[in-house]
Design goal:
Strand content: under 5%
Distance between the termini: 25 Å
Number of strands: 0
Order of helices and strands: HHHHHHH
Radius of gyration: 17 Å
Helix content: over 70%
Shape: globular
Number of helices: 7
Structural class: mainly alpha
């Protein structure tokens, strides 16, 4: 039998690998910006549903409303603060597929800021996957599916933008390959750390991750989703939400 910590790492790595799939599509294929934005809208809906019906539901069930609310707002505030700092260093448009991303010549240090920003976006999701194994020993397939489905358009859109900003293939795939590995490590760490702590700590951490993920969606993914789809963005987001909701109910969530 595979130990829980190893399963957590493998599931985190699997969900993170979707970033590389998206990066490959974004770098090698000429995908229309409208298509990228549409997939981003769908992925945003998937993640919103996972936050609501998987993460926050679990946090509330384990720690009650106050614990869930404090953790949720703390995660959103922490992410927003970190994202604001990175935005001033050139990472504001790291998930945009058009010409919004600055090149290193236009904004020195923006490459590092984009890499750190991409890492900031992925860690909360991975920790949430790792801690989900603490609930009965089985991973939340809804959360894994949601992260995987949202990571594909995230990698696709961001990589297309990086290519437009004249960043090298080595830089682009190095970022996403590294984050895929870190995703596995973060999920593993989340499992190991919180398996020895009271359930209230686990609940608070789940809520923190939920708040950070929702803030990330609004700050980075939804702007790209709306940029080209406009009138269809709401419908596509609703469709993604419904798909994840259906997965949640089929898994007994």
């Amino acid at each position: 039998m595979i130990p829980g910590w190893a399963l957590a790492g493998l599931w985190g790595l699997l969900s993170g690998s979707a970033l590389l799939i998206g990066a490959g599509l974004g770098y090698t294929a000429r995908v229309a910006q409208r298509v990228i934005a549409a997939v981003m809208a769908f992925g945003s809906g998937v993640m919103i549903s996972a936050v609501a019906f998987d993460l926050m539901n679990e946090a509330y069930g384990q720690g009650g409303f106050v614990s869930a609310a404090v953790g949720f707002l703390s995660g959103a505030a922490a992410y927003s603060l970190a994202n604001s700092r990175l935005s001033h260093h050139g990472a504001k448009h790291r998930k945009r597929s058009g010409g919004q991303q600055p090149s290193e010549e236009e904004h020195s240090g923006s490459g590092t800021a984009i890499a750190v920003g991409a890492l900031l976006d992925g860690v909360p999701e991975s920790i949430a996957i790792g801690t989900s194994l603490l609930h009965g020993g089985a991973v939340s397939l809804v959360m894994v599916a949601a992260v995987f489905l949202s990571n594909v358009p995230e990698g696709l859109s961001s990589s297309a933008g990086m290519k437009r900003a004249r960043r090298s293939a080595r830089f682009i795939f190095g970022i996403w390959g590294g984050i895929a590995l870190i995703s596995g490590a973060a999920a593993l760490t989340g499992f190991l750390v919180f398996s020895h702590l009271p359930a209230s700590y686990n609940a608070a951490t789940t809520a923190v991750a939920a708040g950070a993920i929702l803030a990330m969606l609004v700050d980075t993914m939804i702007p790209e989703a709306f940029s080209e789809t406009h009138e269809l963005a709401g419908l596509l987001t609703a469709l993604g939400f419904l798909v994840a909701f259906a997965l949640s109910k089929r898994s007994g969530g």
